[in-house]
Amino acid sequence: MVYQDRITLDPRIRSGQPCLKGTRIAVADVLDYLGGGMTVAEIVDDFPDLTAEDIQACLTFAAERERRLLVAA
User: Fold this and answer.
1) Nearest Cα to 50, choosing from 38, 35, 64?
2) 24-69 pLDDT, tens per residue?
3) Which CATH architecture group holds 3-72?
4) Where are the beta strands (DSSP E) in the chain?
5) Whole-structure pTM value
């Protein structure tokens, strides 16, 4: 999964938070939904502009960010 195809950082959108392209939905929002117990199907039902691949991109982005933080520490 190449998350860069689906996630963008634009200082004009959500104060530069990483968001899914073409939306104002932040990666953190998706992670919060998942952490709160929502399934991928429930998120996609609530946000029809999103796909299961978008959710996977958020997880991949978060995992990559975590790996970078561990290496920097």
Assistant:
1) 38
2) 999 999 999 999 999 999 999 999 999 999 999 999 999 999 998 8
3) Orthogonal Bundle (1.10)
4) 7-9, 18-20
5) 0.90
